[in-house]
Amino acid sequence: MKLQVPLAITFLVGLFMAVQFFVPHEAGRDTFTTLLAWGRIVGAFALVLGIHSLLRTHGDKVRRRRRDWPYSLVTIACFVLMCVIGIGFGHDPGTSFYWVFSHIQVPLDATMFSLLAFFIASAAFRTFRARSVEATLLLAAAVIVMIGRVPSSINLVLGQSGLSQWLQERMPDVSEWVMNFPTIAGKRGILLGVALGAIATSLRILLGIERSHLGGGSGEGG
Amino acid sequence: MHLDRRWVFVGIALAVVVPVVTGLTLPLGKIAPPTVMVYDAIEALQPGDPIMIAVDYGPASMPELHPMARALVRHCLSRDLRVIALSLNQQGTVLATDILTTVGPEMGAVDGEDYVNLGFKVGYSVVILGLGESIKQVYPQTADGRRTADLAIMEGVDSFEDVPLVVDLAASNIPFAWIAFAHERYHQQLAVGITAVMATDLYPYLQSDQLVGIINGLKGAAEYEQLIDEPDFGMLGMSAQSMAHLLIIVLVIVGNIAYFAAGRAASRGPERTSEQ
């Protein structure tokens, strides 16, 4: 029963959502709107579950003094602080929440992300080698797209020469061509594969073959 | 070739910091057609038309996406469009407030009449489908707690049918949900502003007309600033990005020259750990 009821709900709701897409009847549309409202409520509960999981995981780590537990303490303290000042005093401009977000969270997030530039530059220097035909093609495409994105930088290397002018005019077009044809050809193949996989997985879930979302198993139903 | 990677880090730091500090601006060159397509789609709207801008990114992507959000809102308000902002990323709602409260007053626009921030809702696919049925039902209140139905800006706006264009600014997979649910189900006209690394994922949808345009990364933001003739951080940031790209190209070339000079066979072994 514990298994059959969720499987039946999944099958019936999934079937209804698929059918109503093609049948624009008012009754179906009303039910669809109601189900969407339920979906948003379930989504909000998922947020609560996420918060519970965060607090339980980090709380447990602090209680048992596991490795790096002070970081978990900071996580919990920051969570509580943001909740108190956000729920208690609002999040409009001028509030404490807004100040903490703008002056602490934004610089921290931006700093973490900007580190990528350093690692990409270092990795490009160390590993981007024309070791094979494929690697050479990849290298050429990367250089073309990079120059195409910043054509004015050619000036800094070649000066105001004729070659520089020619490259500045042509490289953005070549870069767009690389993005629009060879790249999209490969990407489309991947997208079609992903879409077929998603359809297959959806069917498996609706038919109760895939059950990992119910928890407690590897996913293969008996 | 042995080069302590700290020198690479110093080079990148200088390449980024010097143009920003000195205010160096480099010419952009030719504007990419996908950026012009977004500009044209907004130009095609009539004054008073609503436009929905989804601020679906967090602070990590601000350097690329915030300048384009600012430029877009500037363009929309200058054309007297009604800007309805919302966010499907929990951090995006504060960023939307930041844009609207800085650009709005600067353009002489009024909150609740010319622009509004509806805020964040959890569960993006369900929210997008809900917006296609009733915006006021999904968002009964704005981000700052006003009743959506009471606002002048929401007059005659209740679903995608009443919104001629949605622009999603994102650094995640949310644009795919907008395409799948807003465009495919409700035939909503859709444009996106994305980080450059996402461009290859979204270009196929531009080619199939599921998107009316793409603003691609910081370059797209700078191009948009040039199109509306309002140079801002996008243009400044592009100089830093140009220098960083240039340095990376030089590093790749130097690395390959060293590789071939050392001989292919010798270099086929593992990279030196001292450089890592």
Describe the fold and architecture.
The complex is a heterodimer of chains A (222) and B (276). Chain A is mainly α and 222 residues long. Among the domains of chain A are: 1-64; 130-180, no CATH class; 191-222. Chain A has 8 helices and no strands. The longest helix of chain A is centred in the first third of the chain and has 38 residues, at 26-63. Chain A is extended, with a radius of gyration of 27 Å. Chain B has helices at 5-22, 33-43, 62-78, 92-106, 124-133, 135-138, 174-186, 199-207, 217-227, 233-262, 264-267, and strands at 50-56, 82-87, 115-120, 165-170, 190-194, 214-216. Classes of the chains: A mainly alpha (222), B alpha/beta (276).
Defining key terms:
heterodimer; A: 222 residues; mainly alpha; 80% helix; B: 276 residues; alpha/beta; Rossmann fold; 2 domains; 11 helices; 6 strands
Low-confidence stretches of chain B: none
CATH class of the largest domain in chain B equals: Alpha Beta
Number of strands of chain A: 0
Question: How many β-strands of chain B, per DSSP?
Answer: 6
What's the main sheet of chain B like? 6 strands, parallel
Largest interface: pair, residues per side: A-B, 67 and 73 residues
- The poorly predicted ranges of chain A are 218-222
Main beta sheet of chain A = none
CATH topology of the largest domain in chain B: the name is Rossmann fold
Report the end-to-end length of chain B measured between terminal Cα atoms. Answer: 13 Å
| Coarse morphology of chain A | extended
Q: What Rg of chain A is obtained from the alpha carbons, in whole angstroms?
A: 27 Å
* Structural classification of chain A: mainly alpha
Distance between the termini of chain A: 15 Å
